[in-house]
Amino acid sequence: MVENKAFYLTTPIYYVNDAPHIGHAYTTVAGDVLTRWHRQRGEAVWFLTGTDEHGQKVLRSAEANGIDPQVWVDKLVAEEWLPVLQVIDVQNDDFIRTTESRHIERVQRFLTRLKDAGWIYEGTYQGPYCVGCEEFKLPADLIAGTDQYEGQECCPIHSKPVEIVDESNWFFKLSAFTEPLIDHYTKHPEAIRPQSAYNEVMSFIKQGLQDLSISRSTFSWGIDVPWDPQQVVYVWFDALLNYATAVGLDDEAGSEGAKKFGATWPADVHLVGKDILRFHAVIWPAMLMAGGLDLPRCVYAHGWLLVGGEKMSKSKLTGIAPSQIVDHFGYDVFGYYFLKAIQFGQDGSFSWEDLSARYTADLANGLGNLASRATAMVNKYCEGVLPKPAALSDKERALEALLQKTTTDADRHMLNLDFAEGINAIKEFIDAVNLYVTEREPWKVAKSPELTDDLHTILYTIIDCLRAIAILYYPVMPKSMANLWSQLGMPGNLADQTIEMASHWQSAPPGISVTKGEALFPRLEDE
Ligand code: MSP
């Protein structure tokens, strides 16, 4: 294994049958915050996202719009999926599209390798298929349709009738991996998280796996099976491979692709919604085992954003565009809100009221107010120049100790993908600094010239705490924290400050110019 392997994180690749909604952005933002956190620790990082462009779901949406599928996916990627990364300010290192030749060629090569190794054979598939999930379903998983679908068997996720597939296809010997997967997950319980996801996958595998049809013959929108161009590769088999094709899967030894692969593989975290857990924790590792490749270190299944108790979705007309939130609340609030309000791994209901309430309490009144009071006081009492601190009282010492603890706790929680606790640890530090300001009453101290030393200590302490907060919150709210950093007049680039440096008490250099800039989190107009 390569010494300095990057922390490699992936999001699912998104179907381009429609425009993104905040449920999709949720996964991407979680990945963005986690990779920014790792970067801020000074680690090498590789963050991949992209689009899943083949299969019947995408094909049908193109047909419904009367457009050739390639033209359709090109248009949606250019007009919707790439721009949404700007809207939510994502710092991905690569964006893979499954219609790119770098992907298609590597998929075909890998598939040929599996066939040559005896893992692929010809057979007949008969059974229900949900185009919404792009999944072969087990009859026991289906639910009875209601209203317009009365009397039909439906997919429990999409509430729409399944279709019956009856074709001659190529099969992958998934059943051969039942025992190896059980062994692997018994030895590596950390490989599927949270625990509920681990339990679900283990009990599914223990029922025994069935071989999987990995090609389709009734439509041609997909990657040709290399030895049988009458068939296209099953969209999930094609899609899962993106995580490896994007970093040079099976490229010739010594090539750029092989170097990249060595420096990234295996993936450290595949972030997925719980609806696509089995693909990632059963089919994908079996494919990798068949190919003799290392397995991902962790598949983390998060919950759904719900509207009216159901998974938010465009097809159910409950999708909200990420821009609706960003336009109203600014760039950074998206990650802050969703990752703090919803325990990662569980479902959460979205409501505008809750978002507004938390924005106002935590950001406008909490951090925003602290920053504007502090920068205003340095300007009023010290002509905008950060004073030198004098002797510290117990109150400053208490903040110093809390900052050490906050940094360690936040780091531990974030690395553990417990975003809510990580953010909360930082928020509690902000609350403590706000309390410190209230208790130390610098505006009163400023009235007594003999207390100037005290005043300087207080103002310095608040600004130095804001310095630490800017570092710790930078992965969560990059734009507003960069703004805070420049208002504080801190030297150097915020991106170059490691998480650990946040805990270096009194590292703001006295003498820097502190400006009272625009509000970091303006109050909402409708309040
Ligand atoms: N194309 C497949 C993934 C292939 S990965 C090799 C796919 N695409 S998707 O566009 O339907 O969904 C992508 C991700 O968005 C999934 O992780 C899914 O859980 C997530 N979400 C879609 N709607 C969601 C919510 N309402 N809430 C949270 N996440 C949701 O599946």
Can you walk me through this structure?
The chain is α/β, with parallel strands linked by helices and 527 residues long. It is 48% helix and 15% strand. It has helices spanning 22-40, 56-64, 69-87, 101-116, 178-187, 195-206, 235-240, 242-245, 256-264, 277-290, 322-329, 333-341, 352-382, 394-415, 419-440, 442-445, 452-473, 478-488, 499-502, and strands spanning 7-15, 45-52, 94-97, 120-130, 135-136, 143-144, 153-154, 163-172, 192-193, 212-213, 215-216, 224-225, 228-233, 269-273, 299-302, 305-307, 310-311, 348-349. Strands 3-2-1-14-15-9 form a six-stranded parallel sheet, with helices on both faces. A hairpin with an 8-residue loop joins strand 6 (143-144) and strand 7 (153-154). The protein is elongated, with a radius of gyration of 26 Å. The structure holds 5'-O-[(L-methionyl)-sulphamoyl]adenosine (MSP). 5'-O-[(L-methionyl)-sulphamoyl]adenosine is lined by residues 12-15, 23-24, 26-27, 52, 239-240, 242, 272-273, 275-276, 304-305, 311-313.
